[in-house]
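Regression test case RT-17, inverse folding.

Input:
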């Protein structure tokens, strides 16, 4: 499965099967975590076989079922921490999709008390991502039109349109899609558009999708 195929196949999944993640897949996920941590300075981790991480009142309310594995997004809170958590967390999400697993980003609906116990002193918890074999593959979210998430003076080049298409398939908190892509001297930019929660995390996720869709780097604006 290519990156783009993974982007198209991925949807949030909130109910999981009992099936454990096999050792060879754990090795691939852990290797990717190591690379992401080296590049980003973050402290991402995959926690396996720990149902306590998603055992809380909120997870039942939010219809999560049988989450036994999850990705913890944490690190020192500096230099656009939220954006980096979004960008590198989504790298893991897309790898999981390629490995036949499913995911769901969670800012709220997990057991924060339990997950905070896993974070070393001096580091902050951004959020977590549920991981495992889904009971289903989720479904396509409703999406804004490309012109609502871009600002260009003229006609968009093909690579820019491809990038936007991939960004619109990205997960965002409550499906808010509060981002806007532009072009500055031939270079793609992205910024938050409007007010919402977790918009900088969303921005990192959308930037990664845009880069994979367009084959170009994206500069995040304040
Ligand atoms: C930063 C972020 C936080 C999220 N937090 C939650 C959450 O707390 N609970 C939940 O059920 N879904 C959460 N989601 C999942 C979104 O609702 C979902 O990504 C969005 O509706 C789009 O659907 P899709 O992921 O299937 O494309 C979150 C997504 C993101 C990106």
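Golden output:
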């Amino acid at each position: 499965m290519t990156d783009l195929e993974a982007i198209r196949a991925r949807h949030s999944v909130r109910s999981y099967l009992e099936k454990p993640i096999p050792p060879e897949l754990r090795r691939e996920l852990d290797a990717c975590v190591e690379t992401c941590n080296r590049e980003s300075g973050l402290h991402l981790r995959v926690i396996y076989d720990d149902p306590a991480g998603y055992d809380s009142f909120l997870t039942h309310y939010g219809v999560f079922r049988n989450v036994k594995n999850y990705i913890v997004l944490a690190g020192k809170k500096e230099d656009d921490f939220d954006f980096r958590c979004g960008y590198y967390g989504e790298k893991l999400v897309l790898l999981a999709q390629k490995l036949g697993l499913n995911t769901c980003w969670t800012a709220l609906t997990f057991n924060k008390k339990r997950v905070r116990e896993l974070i070393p002193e001096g580091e902050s918890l951004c959020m977590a991502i549920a991981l495992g074999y889904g009971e289903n593959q989720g479904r396509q979210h409703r999406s804004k039109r490309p012109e609502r998430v871009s600002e260009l003076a003229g006609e968009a080049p093909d690579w820019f349109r491809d990038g936007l298409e991939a960004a619109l398939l990205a997960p965002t908190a409550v499906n808010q899609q509060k981002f806007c892509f532009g072009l500055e001297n031939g270079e793609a930019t992205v910024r938050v558009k409007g007010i919402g929660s977790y918009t900088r995390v969303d921005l990192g996720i959308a930037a990664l999708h845009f880069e994979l869709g367009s084959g170009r780097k994206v500069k995040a604006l304040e």
